[in-house]
Amino acid sequence: MPSVRSATIVGAGIAGLTAALALARKGIACHVLEQAPALEEVGAGLQLSPNASRILADLGLLEALGARWSEPDHILLSSGRTLAPLASVPAGAFARKRWRAPYGVLPRAALQAVLLEAVRREPLATLTTGRRIDTVEAALAAAPADLVIAADGVWSALRKDVPGALPARYSGTIAWRFLVPCATAPPVLDPRAVTAFLGPRAHLVAYPLAGAQAFNIVALHAHGQTPAAGWSRSGDAAARSRLLDAFSGWHADLRRLLAEARDPLMWPLFECPDGAWTDGGKVVLIGDAAHAMTPFAAQGAAMAIEDAALLANRLARASGTGPALRRFEATRRERVARVRSRGAFNRFAYHARGPVALGRDLVLSLRGPESLAGDLDWLYGYRTPD
After folding, report:
1. Residues 103, 207, 350, 382: which is the catalytic one?
2. What architecture does CATH give domain 171-267?
3. Which among 386, 157, 384, 147 has a CA at the least distance from the CA of 284?
4. In terms of CB atoms within 10 Å, which of 52, 97, 305, 380 comes out highest?
5. Topology given in CATH for the domain delimited by 6-72+104-167+272-350
6. pLDDT tens digits for 290-334?
7. What is the pTM of this model?
8. Can you list the alpha helix ranges (DSSP code H) found in 196-299?
9. Is residue 350 flagged as an active site residue?
10. CA 38 to CA 213: how far, in whole Å?
11. InterPro entries recorded for this chain (predicted)?
């Protein structure tokens, strides 16, 4: 019998819904509280690398996901100025064979819908929408439980109830997100790949979303002025001008893509410093509430999914809540730190300029696809400890 028999989860995003499903499968009753009146996930698309899809497969969701995603043949790094390919990592069937799980891309809302449907089928999981929760006490008043799991994102209201937890801070990077219909997409966008175009202080990621019949585009550039905290917003003319300035000197096809973007949303990227994630007994932070990170390693959703799986394992096996939460935090902190380091390295490499960029391109030209894939074994081959 798990030491924790019930949990209240605040937030019905990817972290919260995955946690509810994983915990229910371990015999722990969960009630999810979500402030939105209806679940309409923000954001256009996401990448699910094998370390995340493996967990979702173990939860029985792979067939439902397979109907909603596409599996790119490869992950491609290309020059934003010339479009010349710099490096390629195989995915598709290669990913399934090497890492024993698929690499998929899909609309973020599609993943949330699959998780929500699975949670609603679980007898031990319930969901209440339209309920704003600002404190741990309010969470327990709304749904009494042995443990509160704060899965309420980078702007977590419950983070303040964890001694030693730190507020989110601006990363210095702006992301612009928009869709380009496949029917009108330029040839520079490869429907079989996740492509990252690299350039000085900026890069652009493109991949197809099968369900949307469109390419998901994310353009990231350095922006030193700290914006107001908050989620996405429509950029004004000055912000659009700064976007095009950040990509000056890039290939004309990519600049045209940015100039003609319809209804792009501007996302100032915030991240969480390395603070505490749990009070050791009553509350634990997971996902972006604990360790929001920039998307330079495309691991934000994956880290939330890994959190949920490990937390369920630790709570199901531990003799006490405190030891379970401390073991969870210690294990996840080490893993997240390594992923953060990879993201920081990618940011340096992707946005390199001058001689550093030339050196990067030379090094990449000497590495074969399988060699580059081997560098990702620790990331994509990860299995959640029992």
Report:
1. 207
2. 2-Layer Sandwich (3.30)
3. 147
4. 305
5. FAD/NAD(P)-binding domain (3.50.50)
6. 999 999 999 999 999 999 999 999 999 877 899 999 999 999 999
7. 0.96
8. 237-246, 252-259, 288-291
9. no
10. 24
11. FAD-bd, FAD-dep_Monooxygenase_BioMet, FAD/NAD-bd_sf
